[in-house]
Write a sequence for this structure.
């Protein structure tokens, strides 16, 4: 057998250790004006940059109201663009989004 499977240590060095919020922000910065998602019957589009700004504003509001880092939060609501933004905001605020599907 000529090739060996990758080792865990190889995988750890392939990706720098970053938070999910940092990864999201880097992607938003790289593709700022590209469409991230389209929603609704009118198919209104949102860019990566616009979604990043909205998520940061929500995160700031949650932190201002007492959300602490590493706190677990469940989002209850219909699947929607706003739900996704709130989930991203939790990640950017350093909280843990707990699924309750």
């Amino acid at each position: 057998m000529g090739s060996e499977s990758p080792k865990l240590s190889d995988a750890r060095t392939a990706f720098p250790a970053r938070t999910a919020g940092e990864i999201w922000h880097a992607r938003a910065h790289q593709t700022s004006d590209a469409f991230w998602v389209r929603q609704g019957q009118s198919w209104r589009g949102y860019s990566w940059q616009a979604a990043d700004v909205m998520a940061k504003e929500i995160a700031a509001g949650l932190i201002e109201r007492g959300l602490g880092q590493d706190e677990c939060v469940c989002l209850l609501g219909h699947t929607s663009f706003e739900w996704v933004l709130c989930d991203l905001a939790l990640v950017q605020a350093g909280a843990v989004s707990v699924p309750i599907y």
Observations:
- Helices lie at 8-14, 20-30, 48-64, 81-93.
- Residues 24 and 52 are 8 Å apart (CA to CA).
